[in-house]
Design a protein that fits this description.
Blueprint: H1 5-16, H2 25-32, E1 36-39, E2 42-46, H3 53-66, E3 70-75, H4 81-94, E4 98-104, H5 107-116, E5 121-125, E6 134-140, H6 149-161, E7 175-177, H7 180-191, H8 195-201, E8 204-208, H9 217-224, E9 228-232, H10 252-260, E10 265-269, E11 276-280, E12 284-285, H11 291-305, H12 336-339, E13 350-353, H13 358-366, E14 371-374, H14 378-388, E15 392-395, E16 399-401, H15 412-425, H16 431-435, E17 443-449, H17 455-466, E18 471-473, E19 478-482, E20 485-491, E21 497-504, H18 507-520
Parallel strand pairs: 3-4, 3-5, 4-7, 8-9, 8-10, 13-14, 13-15
Antiparallel strand pairs: 1-2, 2-6, 5-6, 10-11, 11-12, 15-16, 17-21, 18-19, 19-20, 20-21
Helix pairs in contact: 1-6, 3-4, 3-6, 5-7, 7-9, 8-15, 9-15, 11-13, 11-15
């Protein structure tokens, strides 16, 4: 009996449901050496070392074994991206797959194309904000969603069995180029209800594209919204012109340019353009934790005006627009967030991860939207949004998730559009004016060196010291919630460290909370 994708996929998934599977020894060796990482977040490896061509071929054939006929393929701007994409194309064609090739495209764009084209799966060649010597693969399933744990285990089964997926010449796949960026932008423009208002403002904005996948996409979308775009690091150059992760230290030039040009707003990206960091004329680059609440303010005002409804939703599983009904309670003198407040039992809520700022909760609650938290990780937030039929969500690292968009994941283009939507609706000429209606962020993110053997005891010490009277969530490490702040302690998956994140409603609360945490952990 010959190989077929359908029977192989079925067998692998059935095997995956029974247990967790190990990687083949030769591939596990690369993982143990630190040159390769394999997890539900994808595959990342160094070149040379982690991404050996023979191993890459096995990775792609194993993906081909458990996915359907049509695969969307895209990559970020890393120097190795085109070569890896070309190799992947060849393997998929030999496996009988039809490829929709987006070329250089943001991660959310590739996700959107999988959904829009009703493709069976997708592959994104990216290592996000890892250093330049790294690259990676993010696997997408039907609908544009990232692989979950079940799909990862099915992929491991196929990898261990090393089935050859090559088809006869008559069944070879085909490659078709697709303008994914235009499709993505079109979907966002249809989603934002006050595009005409934004265009009238003719906002002056800076974009720092880090030479990555969003260096063309975000400026194009902003120009479609009538903005005057000042480009920084949007050229096709070898490597990254600044450190790839959009940290305050990496965004100094971006911040200076925002101030110099007296911009209405600035937007900085990471290499695969799923994270967004705002900038202003007065402050330069601001905390990435502001991205999500600012974008939510745009969504809220749309609901208040009645310009969004559940009829806007176009996706089946968990994709919802604003919902119906609700009585607007706008009052003069209230903040923009409060002016968008909404009552109604049909509101489905906002979901962020456990490490995200209180600011999003403030905006959601003032709008009458239930607020919930999920374990850290885009896949976890999306799963929670699907299960609860949430109307908005994201992660505090600059990731905005609008479930009514085909990207249904962290989407920098959507984030920028919703922020401009809020600015235009409230007739504000700058992002600085919007920030006046939000409290400051008082947050600490810290790495604490700790041998893995001692990490479980550290969690118990913190729980014993601070847990009395706190809301406790242990789905992802240890999260403790208080009236005036919260603490989140998580173990790293790759390093002998724990990550301590704490936030207080003011500086004194944060200082006290952080001090108590360090004392409990024996680090004071």
């Amino acid at each position: 009996m010959g190989w077929t994708a359908q029977t192989w996929m079925r067998d692998c998934i059935m095997a995956a449901r029974k247990k967790q599977h190990s990687l083949p020894p030769e591939i596990q060796k690369s993982v143990d050496s630190g040159q390769l990482m394999v997890s539900v977040s994808g595959i990342r490896g160094t070149l040379p070392g982690g991404f050996r061509p023979d191993h890459l071929a096995r990775f792609i054939q194993s993906n081909a074994a458990i996915t359907g006929k049509t695969i969307v393929l895209g990559n970020d701007a890393r120097p190795s991206g085109d070569a890896l994409r070309n190799m992947i194309q060849g393997i998929l064609v030999l496996s009988g797959k039809d490829i929709l090739d987006t070329g250089l495209a943001p991660t959310p764009t590739v996700k959107a194309v999988v959904a829009q084209k009703k493709a069976a799966a997708g592959i994104i060649v990216t290592a996000s904000h890892n250093p330049i010597e790294w690259n990676g693969l993010k696997f997408l399933k039907k609908g544009g969603f990232f692989f979950g744990s079940q799909e990862l285990e099915a992929w491991k089964v196929a990898l261990s069995l090393a089935q050859d997926t090559t088809v006869p010449p008559a069944k070879l796949g085909r490659i078709q180029s697709v303008d994914g960026i235009s499709l993505h932008i079109e979907a966002i423009l249809k989603r934002i209800p006050n595009v005409a208002q934004i265009r009238k403002k003719k906002y002056r904005v800076v974009v720092d594209g880090v030479g990555g996948a969003g260096r063309e996409a975000l400026p194009l979308m902003l120009e479609a919204l009538g903005c005057k775009v000042i480009r920084l690091n949007c050229e096709d150059v070898f490597g990254f012109p600044r450190p790839p992760e959009p940290t305050p230290a990496a965004l100094k030039e971006f911040g200076k340019l925002c101030k110099k040009e007296k911009v209405a707003a600035g937007f900085a990206l990471d290499p695969d353009a799923d994270r967004l960091v705002p900038g202003t004329a007065l402050s330069g680059a601001i905390n990435e934790e502001y991205t999500l609440p600012l974008a939510l303010m745009g969504y809220v005002q749309s609901v208040r005006k009645g310009t969004l409804s559940s009829g806007n939703a176009s996706r089946k599983k968990g994709t919802h627009g604003a919902g119906g009904g609700g009585r607007s309670q706008s009052r003069a003198g209230r903040s923009p967030a409060a002016r968008g407040s909404q009552n109604g039992s049909n509101r489905k809520g906002v979901i962020v991860n456990l490490s995200s700022s209180l600011l999003t909760a403030l905006v959601a609650q003032e709008a009458g939207l239930p607020f919930m938290r999920a374990p850290v990780g885009e896949a976890n937030v999306v799963e929670s949004m699907l299960n609860s039929k949430a109307v908005f969500g994201g992660e505090g690292n600059g990731g905005v998730i609008d479930p009514a968009l085909p990207s249904f994941g962290r989407d920098s283009l959507a984030g920028a559009a919703w922020i401009l939507s809020a600015m235009a609706e409230f007739n504000m000429d700058s992002l600085d004016s919007m920030l006046q209606h939000l409290p400051g962020i008082h947050m600490i993110k810290e790495k604490i060196q700790m041998p893995k053997a001692k990490i479980p005891a550290a969690f118990q010490k913190l729980k014993k010291a601070l847990g009395k009277g706190a809301a406790i969530d242990e789905r992802d490490g240890l999260w403790l919630g208080f009236d005036e702040g919260w603490v989140h302690l998580r173990a790293s998956n790759t390093e002998p460290i724990v990550r301590l994140i704490a936030e207080g409603r003011n500086a004194s609360v944060l200082e006290e909370l952080h001090g108590r945490c360090r004392q409990a952990l024996g680090k004071s």
